[in-house]
Amino acid sequence: MSDKPIRLGDNRTGAGGQPLPFAPAMRAGDFVFISGQVAMREDGEIEPGGIESQTRRTMENLIAALALADCTLADVARIGVWLDDPRDFWTFNKVYASYFPEGGPARSTVRSQIMVDAKVEIDAIAYKPLSSD
Fold it and tell me: Which listed CATH number (3.30.1330.40, 3.40.50.300, 2.20.25.10, 3.30.565.10) goes with 6-127?
């Protein structure tokens, strides 16, 4: 095995087909680092609607990025959340909790202006050993 991190997945494109200059996921040994996910649809546009629909799309994008490393939400050790509007916190939390019925991983949530017209961004660190030795 290489000592270098392994890039997982192809570069995605954003609005207008603009290439995004980062990997969706990187594996470094037994850890998998997921880039910040927003409510971007397959066409590169942000999911319309409020915090509920955007949180669902963002979580589904997170699940897809985890799958690149054969991981699931059960493998996630830490999540970082950025919310554009703190008034969305309770609604976001309700949708988010539905993805973790047994309780979620360690998490930080902050208010931040997001670089695209999204209401939420989520990144993650997962732990999944490459071998059972």
Answer: 3.30.1330.40
